[in-house]
Write a structure and sequence with these properties.
With about 625 residues, this protein is α/β, with parallel strands linked by helices. Helix content is about 40%, strand content about 15%. Helix 2 links the parallel strand 4 and strand 5. The longest helix is centred in the middle third of the chain and has 22 residues, at about 360-380.
């Protein structure tokens, strides 16, 4: 079959199918594209001719498109993979940050970057960066550290070997992450006689690798003798579809469950065995359970510093860890017993070996105490009647409005800044798989773009975005994308006058307020943004509110609206939901400021509680 490189690539993507709960669907359901001279004439033409078989959606910024693809992949639980394509040079480089997000979060996305001419005859072309000592380098080499698979297609026939390898990486539960193909613009247009077999329709089913029997038996033995076992539910629970299996396992054996940020909404927040969110942005009760636990079963988590409190929450040095993870790299951290396998099938096998083993009444009672502490604290600070020193609504009260108004199908999206801690505590999931906080890479600007992709993946139900003024200003143009494409979002913008949560960290570690709040920046004229007016200019419905009661009513109106609705309000910059764990940051060892000296001493004291190995 004689095809151009671009035609062959598109035809291959269309031929890939996936099975989701027994129903066949496209593995690559669409492409986000911004065209330029590096991809418009060949790949753009191929995508146009593909039509609805591989629909193309126009984004407004390449990073935003790739973040939308990531939001789609997470909402689809890695069962479908979106594509993002850019022209050469700055267009391609705009996707590098998003590649880091996908890599850190173990999420599949295919990035197609236009590249310079393989022939080099027209060099240097528009948007080309030349490397004097190595002409093989282009800006696309910048993707190498942040993708799982990287290739530059310099001859059409290279697709025959590269595409299956690329696909294997995207589908592998352990190696899952972003893949990148650099496509020189002359090679995109060159033709080759491709074998028909390359384009045969193929249905993929996500693998469920079994763990080693001996390791499973060792894990069962550790749990059987444990007096105070604890389950840490990570994002791998969602990607394995193991939510129901995890809950059955916990109920049969009486083991409490706490969640990581990525694992949130693995179990209902009011379940009798749920102890709350764990770690720095977690709650006191969950961290207390972790401190008491003698065996910790970590399911599908990479055990980042916010989950482990920089490795202080498991404070008993005798506490033993079991790492149940499909990725070997994550399974063996901190001398964990590595049980490398799929979460769902391994939990079933573990349960079979444990039989009727169950924890004590005293340990299950400790969960009730932890949960009561957690819910009591959140109820108090989220109460609409609570008053902050500034008189403005707090983040906790804002989240509380959505928490109390939860409906089936709601899906909350947020990312870096103050909202991760607020939502990790304040959004008490009534329904499974209802939460996405991008905190693996903590990428400001993910919120709106990621939500656009999530809405595409989920279809029905409301996607509710919580974003601060700082993140909104970094990346907001996909509000327009959502209106243009008909993917409705509800966006709550909390304006606290700058980067308030980093201002909090700055002050708490002895520093002076500097360059975070707008009032503390070097400026000639202090101007605040009218976020509602800005959103209306992009076709959104929008309104400003001032009180918690007004927000409640506005949220109801937004649910009834026919398009993306933005609700903006001023919020308190100094009232926060407190977590329950230490977090290590770099505080100067030498300073003339007594407040910094005190913060350094406190940091050194906290470090004494860390697990070193």
């Amino acid at each position: 079959m004689r095809l151009t490189t671009a035609d062959a690539l598109v035809r291959f993507l269309i031929a890939q199918r996936t099975e989701i709960d027994g129903v066949e669907a496209p593995l690559f359901p669409g492409v986000f594209g911004i065209f330029g001279h590096g991809n418009v004439t060949a790949l753009g033409l191929a995508l146009h001719e593909a039509g609805d078989a591989l629909p193309t959606w126009r984004g407004q910024n390449e990073q935003g498109m790739a973040l939308a693809a990531i939001g789609y992949a997470k909402a689809a639980r890695r069962r479908q993979i979106m594509v993002a394509t850019s022209s050469i040079g700055p267009g391609a480089l705009n996707m590098v940050t998003a590649a880091g997000v996908a890599h850190a979060n173990r999420l599949p996305v295919l990035l197609l970057g236009g590249d310079t001419f393989a022939s080099r005859v027209p060099d240097p072309v528009l948007q080309q960066v030349e490397h004097f000592g190595d002409p093989t380098i282009s800006v696309n080499d910048a993707f190498r550290p942040v993708v799982r698979y990287w290739d530059r297609i310099s001859r059409p026939e290279q697709l025959i070997s590269s595409l299956p390898q690329m696909l294997a990486t995207l589908l592998d539960p352990a190696d899952c992450g972003p893949a990148f193909l650099a496509l020189p613009q002359d090679v995109q247009s060159e033709a080759f006689d491709f074998p028909d077999e390359l384009f045969a329709t193929t249905v993929h089913r996500i693998a469920r690798p079994r763990a080693d029997e001996q390791r499973v038996a060792e894990a069962a033995a550790m749990l059987r003798t444990a007096q105070r076992p604890l389950i840490v539910a990570g994002g791998g629970v969602h990607y394995s579809g193991a939510e129901a299996t995890l809950l059955q396992f916990a109920e049969r054996h009486g083991i409490p469950i706490v969640e990581t940020m990525a694992g949130k909404a693995s179990v209902p927040a009011r379940h009798a065995l749920y102890g709350g969110p764990l770690g720095v942005t977690g709650c006191v009760g969950a961290n207390s359970l972790a401190a008491q636990a003698d065996v910790v079963l970590a399911v599908g988590t990479r055990l980042g510093d916010f989950t482990t409190g920089s490795w202080t929450v498991f404070s008993d040095p005798a506490t033993r860890l079991i790492g149940l993870n499909v990725a070997r790299f994550d399974a063996g951290k901190h001398r964990s017993l590595p049980v490398v396998g799929d979460a769902l099938v391994t939990l079933e096998e573990l349960s079979g070996l444990l039989g009727d083993t169950c924890t004590s009444d005293e340990w299950r009672a400790a969960v009730a105490v932890a949960a009561a502490d957690y819910h009591g604290y959140i109820d108090a600070i989220a109460d609409p009647a609570a008053v902050a020193p500034s008189g403005l609504p707090t983040y906790a009260q804002v989240v509380g409005v959505a928490d109390r108004a939860q409906q089936p199908g709601d899906y909350v999206v947020t990312a870096a800044g103050g909202f991760p801690g607020e939502l990790n505590n304040g959004w008490r999931a009534q329904h499974l798989d209802s939460f996405d906080c991008e905190y693996g890479f903590s990428c400001m600007g993910y919120e709106i773009s990621g939500a656009w992709g999530a809405k595409m993946a989920r279809g029905d139900g409301e996607v509710i975005v919580f974003v601060g003024d700082g993140s909104y200003l970094m990346m907001n143009s996909d509000l327009y994308s959502s209106v243009l494409s008909g993917h409705k979002l509800i966006v709550v913008v909390c304006d606290n006058g700058g980067f308030a949560v980093i201002n909090r960290l700055q002050i708490n570690q002895g520093g002076a307020p500097f360059n975070n709040q707008l009032a503390d920046t070097r400026h000639e004229r202090l101007v605040y943004v009218d976020f509602a007016a800005h959103a209306r200019s992009m076709g959104c419905l929008a309104e400003d509110v001032t009180t918690v009661a007004e927000l409640d009513a506005a949220l109801a109106r937004a649910r009834a609206a026919d398009r993306t609705t933005v609700i903006s309000l001023h919020t308190d910059a100094y009232s926060w939901t407190e977590g329950g764990a230490f977090w290590e940051v770099g505080v100067p060892e030498v300073s003339d400021r007594p407040s910094v000296q005190a913060a350094h001493a406190a940091m050194q004291a906290g470090k004494q509680q860390q697990r070193r190995i």
